[in-house]
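For this section, I looked closely at the sequence of one protein beside the tokens encoding its backbone, which the following lines show:
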Amino acid sequence: MPPALDPLLQHPTRLTVLAFLGACEEAEFGAVREHCEVSDSVLSKAATALEEAGYLTVKKGYVGKRPRTWLAATHAGRNALAAHLAELQRLVAAAEAAGARHAPAERQGS
């Protein structure tokens, strides 16, 4: 039996955060927030849930005198994202194949 969808990644913001972080080594909180088009509090909640699952790390520091927070996907987070996306692709392929079998005869040839 193939792996199920990851319940944690079924939330759009958490999925978007992990996908964004999967494409870079780490990113500043503000850059992730802007990409996800969410508020600080929404991103903070999503990051906390992903961090508790071991999918991302949170690093705090300073740039000059300004506090900054950086987020980074962990190896486990990257694997979870890949498995989740593979399962989504499998579901879509299965649905398309089933739909094609039930299409009217005149549509099956096109």
Q: What stands out?
A: The chain has a mean pLDDT of 92. The beta strands are 27-28, 56-63, 66-73. The radius of gyration is 18 Å.
